[in-house]
Design goal:
homodimer; mainly alpha; Arc Repressor Mutant, subunit A; 2 domains; two-stranded antiparallel ribbon; 2 strands; about 65% helix; elongated; DNA-binding
Chain lengths: ~180, ~180
DNA sequence: TTGATCATGTAAGTGGTTACATGATTAT
DNA sequence: ATAATCATGTAACCACTTACATGATCAA
């Protein structure tokens, strides 16, 4: 079985959630996976084309009233198998976050303390915004997707985001105080 | 002033810490910045070349006894200015971590509970290892770099790593228990 | 003599973003 | 009319990793 990259599997996975078009996929990505996986149309459309060629999905042109035509993609058995097989594969290594704030802080000696503080304050407020967003998404899942079989797992990933973001905020505060 | 990417500035920054060669830079990266910035020789050497051409650094061929020849790079005034200017620039957006474990968990509905648990256990143990490493690095900085003017900032970034990793471990445990 | 460490570099390939290009439909 | 949303796609470019290539020096 050909090995695809994680982004390709993420698209395959999203096709199991009711999203059918490239546009749908982007929407869901931006709403739900945005804190740990983010992709652009420049990846989505070519990938869907490739998945079609490799028969992991089928495509149908559909017309809707009130909206432009679109293409609906559906997983084939082969596609579902590929997804499930990927899910069983152990994750080989921890992800490396690239954090520009930490990078700048690392060289903080060459900066005025005020400037460092400003960076940290700014970072903190962005994190607080993000935390807010996570709370809102969690709320929305609990109300609108109460019976969705996926919701349990979606809330797990959101919980991760909330915990990580909270401790990053705490770190900001602690660092600001001790600079 | 030409805009470089963060990786280029990270190299510029490391050249202020006593590291002088491409090899040195890689060593320090792997020891200290590895949890929030990681680069390969494939980036380091071409970047050093470019920085030399643009006169942000100067290069000297030096021979050492007991070790092969090497090239020593030193920041010019122009290079130091570029670094400091970059440090003042606000960070425009939060980094997006790409987390394969979360991605798989997001599609956990298509997996057996045992499998999900195994992934989480595995992730947790990798995180615990990482946390251990952070503690050791912090210790080593406190003993070997006590008077280093950079150490304060290095410990800040390590503290970030420790906090984030700890809460990720807690999340793993909580999720394992509620799956 | 062989493996570890020190040291520098390139080429091919992958993965990804951004900007661009197009066009339908609907509400204002 | 015109802006917003829905919808699909490509081309140029950037960033990065991996594999490859080379070679010095030293300790076991």
């Amino acid at each position: 079985m050909k090995a695809y990259n994680n982004t390709t599997y993420s698209i395959l996975g999203i096709l199991t959630t009711g999203c059918k078009s490239g546009y749908d996929i982007k929407q869901l990505m931006d709403q739900s996976l945005t804190h740990f996986w983010k992709i652009s149309y420049g990846q989505i459309y070519p990938t869907l084309k490739q998945l079609t060629e490799n028969e992991l999905v089928t495509v149908t042109n559909t017309s809707q009233d009130g909206k432009p035509d679109r293409k609906e993609y559906n997983l084939t058995q082969k596609g579902m198998d590929a997804l499930k097989n990927w899910l069983t594969q152990p994750v080989e290594q921890l992800p490396v976050e690239r954090n520009e704030v930490l990078l700048k802080l690392f060289f903080g000696r060459h900066q005025l303390a005020e400037q460092t503080l400003m960076q940290l304050e700014d970072y903190k407020s962005k994190l607080e915004q993000r935390l807010q967003t996570y709370h809102m998404i969690a709320q929305s899942i609990q109300t609108h997707h109460e019976n969705d079989p996926d919701s349990k797992y979606w809330l797990f990933t959101l919980d991760y985001g909330k915990r990580i973001t909270s401790s990053a905020i705490e770190w900001c505060q602690a660092t600001i105080e001790s600079i």
